[in-house]
Amino acid sequence: MQNYFTNINRLFQTGNAREHSYRGHLETLLNDIIDDNEIIVTNEPARIVNVGAPDYSITKKDIPIGYIEAKDIGDKDLIGIKVNKEQFDRYKNALDNLIITDYVDFLFYKNGELIQKISIAKVEDNIIVPIEDNFSTFKNSILDFISFVSQTITSPSRLAKLMAAKARLLEDVIEKAILSDIDSDENNSLRNEMEVFKATLIHDITPQSFADIYAQTIAYGLFTARLHDKTLQDFSRQEAQYLIPKSNPFLRGLFNYIGGVECDDRLIWIIDSLAEVFLATNIEKIFVDYGKKGGMTDPIIHFYETFLGEYNPKLRKARGVWYTPESVVNFIVRACDEVLKDEFGLEDGLTDDSKIKIKIDDLDAGRTSTGKLRQKEKEVHKVQILDPATGTGTFLAETIKFIKKDFFGSWSSYVEKDLIPRLNGFELLMASYAMAHLK
Fold first, then answer.
1. Which of 56, 57, 293, 418 is the most exposed place for a label (fewest CB within 10 A)?
2. Angle between helices 23-34 and 2-12 (to 10 degrees)
3. Which residue has the higher pLDDT, 60 or 379?
4. Which residue spans within 71-112 are E strands per DSSP?
5. What is the rounded distance in angstroms from the CA atom of residue 431 to the CA atom of residue 248?
């Protein structure tokens, strides 16, 4: 450790050194203490600092096991009372295993709680003076830090809290990354992702809205992937690429990005940390009886209410994310079928595939002498199915199941020609939209 103090002392006494100046020396010290080729201490690139990522990540076989945030020597706000409070709170809530340091004082946090503070030196008369009595304790604490294993997650509520904390951190990093690069001429894959959203989904989306949407969808998409995972002993963002069903092209496309080489470095550490949460979770086991008392049988769909309640309870209330029990959904669908038969004289009810001709505006034909758009006839199915606030698609899915139950004939042909063209759903929340596709 003597080399460490010699090096940082030399820099400190110049009066020109800042927190970045000491980074490499702390990395060397940690590697000397750990002395394990499987454990890698990574000093994150300087550009990541501006968007809020911890300064160091510690990984074992590519799995994150801890993070370190470093401040300048003698930082008076090391515990985050004033200046650093918002940043420290985000880190402590999202990262289970964290060290905050000014290179001489080390604060160890586990599951958001300060468990230990160790000072290995002090500053006297502009000189860093080692406190040798604490060296042994410090070394043992570092070795304990790298042996940390996240507690196995055994409840949906605990999982929702952890997912939400990391999603909020991801949201913050995404927004700052886009804003920091907005005037840059360099190719920015994250900004390109936002431009795709603008072109195909939401034309007036802002960096803040995109960050919110993207963070939610990544967090919940990983949850969905883990729920389909049959190899519970491993899980990663790369594996998630292949676990998202091909029937959901929206999620598949997103995860091809976050699991591939083009993924922005500023997101990777959080996504990997989120994957670690799912690695510590036997999702199949904890969701065996989830929601059954309330008439909910599909955890992919109904857990979103729990997650959103932790991630952004105001958004959940504003968007009306409250799920109808499946028994009630089933009753409403059956009631619609009966009304079509009894009141409208349609013998096949919701299954009806008859068509009618309607008049619609012909945008290519110009206007009449009175200025009105010319119209043309179009043949459409007589019975249309619309859910104007479809959420995760529960009503549309129940309608499909109801129709299929007593269906006779070529199901695949009917689905393509006479069912999908009649299904219409609208949704404002992107994660719900993605889940509706999956459903």
1. 293
2. 170
3. 379
4. 97-101, 105-110
5. 12
Q: Which value, in Å, is the radius of gyration of the alpha carbons in the chain?
A: 28
CB 120 within 8 A of CB 135: yes
Return d(Cα 61, Cα 81) in angstroms, integer. 35
**Dist CA 246 CA 17 (whole Å):** 52
The whole-angstrom separation of Cα 377 and Cα 386 is 22
Compute CA distances 42 → 48, 59, 87, 375, whole Å. 12, 8, 20, 65
Query: Cα separation of 395 and 386, whole Å?
Result: 9
The string of DSSP letters for 111-166 reads TTEEEEEEESEEEETTEEEE-GGGHHHHHHHHHHHHT--PPPB--HHHHHHHHHHH
* Top mean-pLDDT range of 77-91, 131-145, 329-343, 361-375: 329-343
Cα–Cα distance for residue pair 405/401, rounded to 1 Å: 6
- CA–CA distance, 53 with 55 (Å, rounded to integer): 6
Strand pairing category for 127-130 and 121-124: antiparallel
Tell me the pLDDT tens digit for each residue of 169-183.
Answer: 888 888 888 887 666
* 47 or 410, which is more confident: 410
Structure tokens at 201: 């989904």
Rounded Cα gap, residues 103 and 341, in angstroms: 76
List the one residue out of 210, 269, 237, 208 whose CA is nearest residue 53: 269
Question: What's the DSSP call for residue 100?
Answer: E
Q: Strand, helix or coil at 64?
A: strand
Please report, as a single letter, which amino acid is at residue 104.
V
Q: What is the pTM of this model?
A: 0.64
Contact 227, 299 (CB under 8 A): yes
Q: What angle do CA 90, 92, 93 make, to 5 degrees?
A: 65
Distance of CA 149 to the CA centre of its chain: 22
pLDDT digits (tens, 9 = 90+) for 22-59: 999 999 999 999 988 888 898 874 444 445 578 888 88
And the tokens for 241? Answer: 């690429």
* C-alpha span between 102 and 8 (Å, rounded): 11
Mean per-residue pLDDT, 57-71: 83
Alpha carbons within 13 angstroms on the beta-carbon side of residue 189 total: 13
Interatomic CA distance for residues 42 and 24, integer angstroms:
10
Residue 254, both tokens: 């997103």
* Cα–Cα distance for residue pair 150/274, rounded to 1 Å: 12
Contact between 392 and 436 under an 8 Å Cβ cutoff? The reply is yes
Amino acid at 314: K
Comparing 48-62, 103-117, 183-197, 415-429, the range with the smallest average pLDDT is 48-62
